[in-house]
Amino acid sequence: MDSLNHEKDEKISTLTKKIDDLKAKATVGLNEVSLPPQMQGDR
What we know:
Largest sheet: none
Order of helices and strands: HH
Radius of gyration: 18 Å
Mean pLDDT: 84
Distance between the termini: 50 Å
Strand content: under 5%
């Protein structure tokens, strides 16, 4: 039973990390799209 819980926790943390990575990419993409062109070069 313990090993099942451990495996489940590992899968959940892997998925959580993937979701966080996707959110970060989406946020960066949205920021780049919504900034006026003259502000995009400042980063």
